[in-house]
Amino acid sequence: MTVLVYAENWNGNFKKSTFEAVHYAAELANLMDAETVALTISAKDDPSQLGKYGAHKVKTIENPSLETFNNQAYADAIIAAAEESNADTIVISNTSNGKAIAPLVAAKRKAAFITNVIELPESLSPFTIKRKTFSSKAIARYQTESDKKVITITANAFEYSERGQSATAEAFDFQTTAPNQELTSVSIDRATGKIGLTEADLVVSAGRGMKGPENWGMIEELAEALGAATACSKPVSDIGWRPHSEHVGQTGIAINPQLYIAVGISGAIQHLAGVNASKNIVVINTDPDAPFFKAADYGIVGDAFEVLPKLISAIKTYKATI
Amino acid sequence: MKILVCISHVPDTTSKIVFKNDNTEFDAAGVTFVMNPYDEFGLTKAMHIKESMGGTITVVNVGLAATESTLRKALAIGADEAVRINTEPTDAAFVAGLLAEYAGEENFDLIITGRESIDYNGGAVPGILSAHLNIPFVNACIGLDINADQATLIREIDGGKETLQGKLPLLIAGQKGLVEEKDLRIPAMRGIMMARKKPLRVVEASEIHKQTTVLNYQLPDEKGACTIIDPDNVDQLVELLHSEAKVI
Fold first, then answer.
1. B93 neighbourhood in chain A, CB within 8 Å
2. ipTM of the predicted structure?
3. Does residue A174 fall inside a structural domain?
4. Do A124 and A250 share a domain, yes or no?
5. Are residues A62 and A171 located together in one domain of the fold?
6. DSSP characters over A242-297
7. What percent of chain A has pLDDT over 90?
């Protein structure tokens, strides 16, 4: 038996969610007494390092026609690799590209498709596993009788650790069956050097309490001091103070970082839905009755314009000592 | 241009989520159901395309009779006809399979869904549907321009966006950005009157194999008490984040 994990890369580089997925696949394979095979497509990073996170073998695809991401072609490659390694279970990260590939793989494999998974299965037979649902307001226990499964895992839900071995990498000869490449990439526009919101460990977020986009300097300064990503509430992205891509909440991005700092956000139920899986929540708000305090671990009742400069300076002082 | 918009009927975003029957079933008592917010962007986008290029908009939903209010709303906004596939939508493979059976016979040029429904959040139906129909799938679509049978699409990627070129027919799973929130269409009185005369067809669901079953639900763990920190003592927060939360 084999668990196949698609080890995603961005511009050739593995990222945190890749290691989480490999680690998860290895833990799952361990439960199933199976082998873990990772698949890379056009990766520049050394594939053998995936062994450190639990992959026994790495299949690498180097094919000029797969240099740019194409969900259909990548799905076909994953299916071919699963067939070759006799893998009934396929693990894919719940990233933007993962979400574009995984349902295609599941459909073609006639596999049970379980997304947003947050834990290892409770039982293998019948296969029972938990996933987030109702916009993180609940957790559902799913069961499937199908031998074939495609599982996508939530970023930041699993801590990965290095296990210290390296894996053998072998080239996997995959030829695309051409006519499916009906979508072609024209351009990619991605902020470089910024921390991605979904996989950030620390997130600083702000809402209408900031009174205007001109005051976001303090939010960015706090984020920079912490090494955090920045986010915002829905009203703030709706009025155009911040880009839509920063909107966290029920109809925006759902996140679950180690630390979420919310400044000037009252904590509407829709906002909480997207962030309440954060392990630690700090709320800074002038209104002591703001509902967000009920969901917070730490709270400061105070004016952001007075609290933030002090907090930024305290963080900088702390960072200077370590 | 023949456009299909797949519509989910979901609990309003402000709903408190409660379960019944030993946590095996969502408790819909007192819950207001609405059109899935992601689908609203798709429907308005379909209206824009129809107005500039001509064509028809069909809305489809897999659900029991209670979901017809949402289909009627879509007709009032401007869809030409509605189809309800009559069954409880319990599994993504099941729903996508039923939609594929219906859409496979209709030859739509463009199929629009939301990127996920805000209840089950599987994000599974659009991709599976595209695979059944063997048409390209663009997820998290935030921009679409159509010129004859050529489409320029923008999809959201982690930390940015990608522009793609494709040819119809195709399937997009949309969200905010496809149109702006302020441009979302809402039913006007005339639309509501006209919607009463528009066709809403009920199709019986065929037997399609389900891949998953929900055993039961749990609510996330309750948070403990919030530690309130004096605004004049932010050093205490830094200390707690370091020594207690261990995040810095």
1. 106-107, 112-113
2. 0.96
3. yes
4. no
5. yes
6. S-GGGBBSTTSB----SEEEEES----HHHHHHHTT-SEEEEEES-TT-GGGGG-S
7. 86
Our CA dihedral for A29, A33, A35, A38, rounded to 10 degrees, sits at 0
Whether A82 shows a pLDDT value over 90: the answer reads: yes
Which CATH number covers residue A211? 3.40.50.1220
Contact between B166 and B136 (Cβ < 8 Å): yes
């499916």: which residue's tokens?
A180
* A89 CB within 8 Å of a chain B CB: no
User: Would you list the domain boundaries of chain B?
Assistant: 2-218
Q: Do A150 and A275 fall within a single domain? A: no
CB A263 within 8 A of CB A205: yes
Residue B188 CA, distance from chain mean position: 22
What CATH number does the domain located at B2-218 have? 3.40.50.620
Domain shared by A60 and A127, yes or no: yes
| A18 lies in the same domain as A164 | yes
**Which of these three, A130, A149, A180, is where a domain ends?**
A180
**Mutation choice for B interface testing from A181, A182, A280, A316 by most B CBs within 10 A:** A182
Question: Is the domain of A174 the same as that of A63?
Answer: yes
> CB-CB: which of B131, B223, B240 is closest to A295?
B223
Reduced to 3 states (helix: H, G, I; strand: E, B; else coil), residue B120 is coil
Same domain flag for A39 and A136: yes
CB contact under 8 A, B122 and A116: yes
Residue A104 lies in a domain: yes
User: Rounded to whole angstroms, what are the CA distances from B93 to A129, B28, B60, B127?
Assistant: 17, 23, 16, 10
Q: What's the confidence (pLDDT) of residue A19?
A: 96
Q: Which of residues 103-142 of A touch B (CB under 8 A)?
A: 103-104, 106-108, 111-116, 128, 130, 132-142
Task: Clarify whether residues A42 and A163 are in a common domain.
Answer: yes
Q: How confident is the model over A270-282, as pLDDT tens digits?
A: 999 999 999 999 9
Indicate the number of domains in chain A.
2
Here the CATH number for the domain that contains residue A26 is 3.40.50.620
259-278 in chain A: CB under 8 A from chain B:
259, 268-270, 273, 276-277
Identify the pLDDT of residue B192. Answer: 96
Give pLDDT tens digits along chain B (248 positions). Answer: 999 999 999 999 999 999 999 999 999 999 999 999 999 999 999 999 999 999 999 999 999 999 999 999 999 999 999 999 999 999 999 999 999 999 999 999 999 999 999 999 999 999 999 999 999 999 999 999 999 999 999 999 988 899 999 999 999 999 999 999 999 999 999 999 999 999 999 999 999 889 999 999 999 888 889 999 999 999 999 999 999 999 99
Summarize the confidence of residues A158-165 as an average pLDDT.
83
- What is the dihedral sign for C-alpha A251, A253, A254, A257? negative
- Domain with A307 in it: 202-321
Of A96, A244, A315, the CB nearest to B238: A315
